[in-house]
Write a structure and sequence with these properties.
By secondary structure, this protein is of the alpha+beta class. The protein contains 20 helices and 13 strands. The protein folds into 2 domains: 406 residues, no CATH class; 166 residues, Sandwich (Jelly Rolls), CATH 2.60.120. The chain is 45% helix and 14% strand.
């Protein structure tokens, strides 16, 4: 049993590999590992080693070749400073990825894959890197906890809770080019190395600590806050003064190497702009006068404790820390207060996170230390330990389920309200639904058909009896008759504001297999098609059951007078047949201040 417990990080790695196989498909354009902010972190490597282009002119090339043509996952990481192009992301991750990148580059050359930095082997290399760094973080987390005095079973269980009970799972498997699993790993290594230095005063641990600290800051500059946890480590270390040797030499060496790493960023700034210090986040900023502390912790819009309740349980470790060491308690409390304050002051305080607040993943080693002090005060009290362990294991199951939900887009990428959270909580499949707040609406004009009364509707030849929600007819579309019952309406009389949407609700049924049909909203002027907008049903419609779907598109503001909206369902070539019933089309006038990006289910029109 002891041998198996020692292998906890390896078992976790095996579990993560299986989850990766289940959740992730790097061969699919929208599911590439190099994605989102990761495109910026990664771009240093192909820019330096392949394209020799720190202006990143190759972005359009790889976007067109490897990512969706609709640019739904396009990420612009290039900003201008004094007219010069720089990368808004810091290069720390590129340093961590370098060995994996070079191996992928060599293998791509040998095996005949494109050596452009973004073909399949490069994508897999980043996923493998995330898994390796996750394993490394778990391995040293166990070591750190045991240094604090945790038994092998306790350190193994806490490591399991961090790896399986938190959103680090999502950011290791699904969005694995984001910085967080790497920050977790490097910060855990930093805390372990610093603790060993405080215990033994061996210079090699000081050098290693300075290098790890430099990497930590170069991944995310706000990670500098981790310095506040170091006095806590010193509080619990038992210094072995007999092992002091060459302290000054090691100190100078460590500081030199740390500054050498920091200089890489300075050199990049100076090379591109002629300035040694550059603020490279553009218009993104902190607003320290308006932090969102309750929101970042408790809100339905990705509150840390709501989506990662294991972290909330860990906070009871402060009780054990208070009893153990008052100074350490105050240091730890100060660290969390400052970290939460700074994180919640960022302009996008919810960080467009999936599966809860991603910003806290970086400090999960500190959360693990709190868990240790929680279990320490429980001790041998079985009446508390077993119920608590059972609750934590249930929360692990809850976390795995939510990771599945977020990986399948059951929770949306936009703001999550209480209503959205409630509707999504138990879902296994994403729902096509529009969450339009009523206070955003000025006026609605609606047209409804249950496929029985169809005055003013088009394509009536698709009506079929018997297969319906109520009472007996539905519109049936297949390859030979691809256009459903729909409406063609002149837009101008239907709206009272320039901020306009067309929203459609209907019940649909796809027999035998999931339909590839789409809901179409066209905006035309005479015979000229100005905007064609397709909402594909396949992610939302389950076979052999009626499903209600909702979708909405903004109306382009520059349409000419007497433009027409055409609304219908279309059976794409090769798709399964589809039945449509209870179709409602709403032309909705919105207040001018309502922003499209804040409302789930409303899409921008295509051209």
């Amino acid at each position: 049993m002891k041998f198996l417990l020692k292998l906890t990080p390896e078992f976790l790695l095996c579990g993560y590999i299986l989850l990766f196989i289940f959740f992730k498909n790097p061969d699919v354009a929208w599911d590439r590992p190099i994605n989102s902010d990761g495109k910026g972190y990664y771009a240093y490597l192909p820019a330096i080693f392949i394209y020799h282009d720190l202006d990143y002119k190759f972005v359009e090339s790889y976007e067109g070749k490897y990512y969706p043509s609709d640019r739904s996952v396009f990420k612009e990481f290039r900003i201008k400073v004094d007219g010069k192009i720089i990368n808004k992301c810091f290069p720390g991750l590129a340093i961590l990825w370098l060995p994996f990148f070079l191996v992928a580059h060599l293998l791509s050359s040998w095996l005949g894959f494109p050596t452009d930095g973004y073909s399949l082997l490069y994508q897999y290399a980043i996923s493998i890197a995330a898994l390796i760094y996750l394993w490394l973080g778990c391995r040293f987390l166990m070591k750190l906890l045991q240094r604090f005095g945790a038994s092998l079973p306790t350190s193994a269980f806490i490591t399991f809770l961090i790896a399986a009970g938190t959103n680090i799972m999502y950011y290791t498997i699904v969005e694995n080019s984001m910085s967080h699993v790497y920050s977790f790993s490097i910060i855990t290594l930093l805390l372990y190395s610093a603790y060993r230095y405080f215990q033994q005063k061996e210079g090699k641990y000081f050098i290693l600590s300075t290098l790890l600290f430099a990497l930590t800051v170069m991944i995310r500059p706000t990670n500098i806050i981790i310095l506040l946890i170091l006095p806590l480590l010193a509080q619990f270390s038992t210094v072995n003064y007999e092992k002091r040797n060459k302290t000054t030499w090691y100190f100078l060496s460590g500081v030199f190497l740390m500054l050498l790493l920091f200089s890489l960023q300075l050199i990049l700034w100076h090379h591109k702009t002629g300035q040694w210090i550059v603020y490279q986040y553009g218009e993104e900023h902190f607003n320290f006068l308006h932090p969102h502390i309750p929101g970042i912790l408790f809100s339905f819009n990705r509150g840390w404790f709501l989506y990662t309740p294991v972290a909330f349980v860990s906070m009871f470790g402060f009780i054990g820390l208070w009893k153990e060491n008052r100074k350490a308690f105050y240091w730890m409390l100060a660290f969390f207060v400052i970290f939460i304050y700074v994180a919640s002051s960022w302009w996008m305080w919810y960080y467009a996170s999936k599966c809860g607040q991603r910003i806290f993943i970086d400090i999960y080693a500190v959360v693990a230390i709190l868990f240790f002090y929680l279990f320490k005060i429980i001790g041998n009290k079985k009446s508390i330990f077993y119920p608590l362990s059972s609750i934590l294991l249930l929360l692990v199951v809850f976390n795995v389920f939510q990771n599945y939900q977020h990986s399948r887009f059951i929770f949306p990428a936009t703001d999550i309200t209480k209503e959205i959270y409630r509707d999504s909580f138990f879902r296994l499949h994403p729902a096509a639904k529009v969450y339009l707040p009523e206070d955003a609406v000025i006026q609605r004009k609606s047209f409804f058909t249950d496929m029985e009364k169809t005055n003013g509707w088009e394509n009536l030849n698709t009506l079929r009896p018997r297969m319906a929600v109520s009472p007996e007819h539905s519109s049936f579309i297949a390859f030979k008759h691809p256009y459903s019952v729909g409406r063609y309406d002149e837009l101008d009389p239907l709206f009272t504001s320039a901020n306009r949407i067309v929203q459609v609700t209907a019940c649909v049924y796809s027999p035998d297999s999931v339909s590839g049909s789409s809901l179409v909203i066209e905006f035309n002027a005479g015979e000229q098609k100005l905007s064609y907008n397709a909402f594909f049903l396949s992610p939302f419609v389950q076979p052999d059951q009626w499903t209600e779907v909702e979708a909405a598109f903004y109306v382009p503001r520059d349409l000419p007078l007497k433009s027409i909206a055409k609304v219908y369902f279309f059976n794409n070539k090769g798709s399964a047949p589809l039945f449509i019933d209870n179709m409602k089309i709403e032309y909705i006038s919105l207040k001018d201040e309502v922003q499209y990006s804040r409302i789930e289910g409303i899409r921008l029109p295509e051209r």
